[in-house]
Amino acid sequence: MHSTTIHQTYHDRRQIPYLVRDARVEDAPELINLLNRVGQEEIYIADEKAQIPVEQEAAIIRHRNPEVQLILVAEQEGAIAGSLEMVRGVLKKNAHTAIFGMALHPEFRGRGIGRGLLGSAEQWARGVGVQKVSLAVFASNHAAIRLYAGLGYEEEGRRYRQYRILGEWVDEIWMARWL
Ligand SMILES: CC(C)(COP(=O)(O)OP(=O)(O)OC[C@H]1O[C@@H](n2cnc3c(N)ncnc32)[C@H](O)[C@@H]1OP(=O)(O)O)[C@@H](O)C(=O)NCCC(=O)NCCS
Predict the structure, then answer these.
(1) What is the mean pLDDT of the chain?
(2) pLDDT average, residue stretch 127-149
């Protein structure tokens, strides 16, 4: 029987440890704050703010089916540095696939934490039998695209001018990696 639990310590570029673990119910307020914070920046993720209240996030964490849904946080020096959510296809037809989204708090970017979060998520995905992992990213988000491309994700498709961000048209790129 595989384990779906994630609890892994990594070291960032400065050799400071950070922990990647499953989100707990009490993380819900911090997770919503993080989404609001990154959403306000407008240029990185589609949501302009969290789409659900804290109570709903807490309920999602509490009732999560660990074979289907993963909610990870990265924690460094007692603070939530970032999060990643991955969902596996719920149909027989697409149970071999998963999609994810991730976001780091601005203060914690560029330290190597995103790489650890995604590494742990891929480990979970393999464990539950996922073979193909996909994500959508703004064509203008060069840091994210470099992270994904460096891990073997390739462009599969593009929705042209899918977004208009701060007055500019932006394509949405779909990327995928076979595990
Ligand atoms: C994109 C994001 C998840 C990357 O996480 P991160 O912890 O900052 O990235 P890491 O430090 O782990 O770096 C991993 C790789 O990403 C790329 N990368 C990270 N920051 C970068 C930057 N500012 N410019 C270019 N490439 C960058 C590099 O390829 C890097 O590998 P390298 O260090 O070997 O060159 C994070 O910056 C973030 O949350 N950004 C805002 C929200 C967002 O864009 N979410 C993704 C939406 S699809």
Answers:
(1) 97
(2) 98
Domains of the chain and CATH, by start: 7-178 (3.40.630.30)
Q: Is the whole-model pTM more than 0.85? A: yes
From ligand 1's centre to the CA of 3, what distance in Å?
A: 28
- Cβ-based burial of 158 (10 A; exposed 0-12, middle 13-18, buried ≥19): middle
Distances (CA, A) of 100 to 72, 79, 132: 11, 22, 11
Residue 148's SS3 state is: helix
Q: Whole-angstrom Cα distance, residue 42 to residue 20?
A: 25
pLDDT value for 3:
86
**Rounded Cα gap, residues 162 and 28, in angstroms:** 30
Task: State which ligand 1 atom lies nearest to the alpha carbon of 116.
Answer: 12
Q: 56 falls in which pLDDT band (50, 70, 90)? A: very high
Distance CA 10, CA 163 (A): 35
What whole-number distance in Å separates Cα of residue 20 and Cα of residue 141? Answer: 23
Q: Which two tokens stand for residue 13?
A: 């570029």
- Cα dihedral angle (138, 74, 40, 169), rounded to 10 degrees? 0
Task: Give the pocket of ligand 1 (CB within 6 Å).
Answer: 38, 44-45, 82, 102-104, 109-115, 135, 137, 141-144, 146-147, 150
